[in-house]
Please model this.
Amino acid sequence: MSSELIIKLDAEGEGEVIEYSVAIGDTINQGESLLVVESDKASMDIPATCSGVVTKWLVDIGSNVSQGVELAMITTLQPTINAAQATIPKDEPADVVEAITATSSEIIISLEAEGAGEVVEYSAAIGDNLSAGQALLLVESDKAAMDIPSSSAGVLTKWLVEIGDQISQGQQLAIITVAAEQATATSIIAEAEAEADPVTLTPKVANITTEPRQKVAVVVNKSSVMSAGPAARKLAREMAVDLSRVSGSALRGRILKQDVKAFVKQQLLSPSNNTAVAVTASAIAPFDEIDFSQFGDIETKAMSGMARATSAHMTRCWLNIPHVTLSDEVDITELEAFRSSFKPEQFGLHKKPTILPFIIMIIAKALRKFPQFNCSIHPDGQQIIYKQYINIGIAVDTPAGLLVPVIRDADKKSISELAQQINSLAERAKNRKLSVVDMSGGCFSISSLGPIGGTGFTPIINGPEVAILGIASAQMKPVWNGEDFIARKKLPLCLSFDHRVINGADAGKFMSMVRQYIQQIGKILL
Model:
């Protein structure tokens, strides 16, 4: 026979229903996620308090719910099992039926959610009769406090953690004793066709033990609904990821945040996602399509192939590399005085070199001293590749888009050689005469705004490199020397670095060396 049960919200507090975890007609097991509720502090899966088929939603997406609100209607099967006559049909799948009858059974409640936190409060006392989904204890992380619900109904008999303990995913929290009929009901699952006769469910074990305090082994049907933690669901919503396409790595296939991130990374690195449009569609929710012609006249032009490739590469770099940008201001008064005295014809140049070859020479010296800036992370994410050569890329703005030709062995070239190569590469870039070799093999990139203007910006790292230097526009500023204000020329520098391999202290030391050499230009010429 079957009966209809109404599932209510047992947890304290209130929040907004943001997602159904299952659909009408789905079979759900006790303790599995029914829907997701989000408060101003956290999002939380609300588990089903019984097994059965979801037949009706009693709340809508966007509804605000609180303790006691009716959430859904579930139709359950209530089989009568004669233990003495129990037999198993030979063709019954082994993972469908599992039951143990006992006078009482113990269930260990473990932390299923990912992350870590501190136990700050017990929400129940020893001896309390808990229902599935009822708050068991309160855990506080550095971001939020969250109730941890009991995954089973029963009597709380023992705590396995104490107030103040640091806990993480998989840690055992408490022991709950349940009645034998509860243990049996939660561990029996059957599927029947709509036209079939009522199903007789029988336990798998022929010898039934009546020994008390027997551990319960609950076997989950392989066809059960996909399960994911609140953090994973929130990340999936933000990145427009279909969770049905993600493989879970936790217990019983539960999807964690790292599974969603791994799926997104796989999509981004897939050969089929070589355009910005493909990257956007696979990982991030796109902007709503707007008919801009309703506001006035418009003109639509196709992006060049080079622009599309640059857009796709920059998107991958921004999404895959944790950027940090360190900004500084360097006094280039002495360097400008040296440049003004430079006679280009003596070195085979047609004009005086810009400040760029000097900075390239200084960066090359800094890369030798700080090898963590001259490396790349191995594709497996477990190794770092340190390069024994120094090739520096320079960003060049062309009518076709941004290009980054590479100066090879920059540490072995003089100022005049660097200036000649910069001019040659820039000219070939603007005439679209750069080869693939000219734009490959870079270790570090430099992006200069030159006289365009700006007091600073955040350059995007040109992966798989781990750092890039941005140069803004130099300005004359008053500087106090202890007695008077004097005019000095200041150049803003912006160093973006990959925080996976470079920490803030390293970046500070790197920038300090660059600043020192720029301000005392004679040192690099010795």
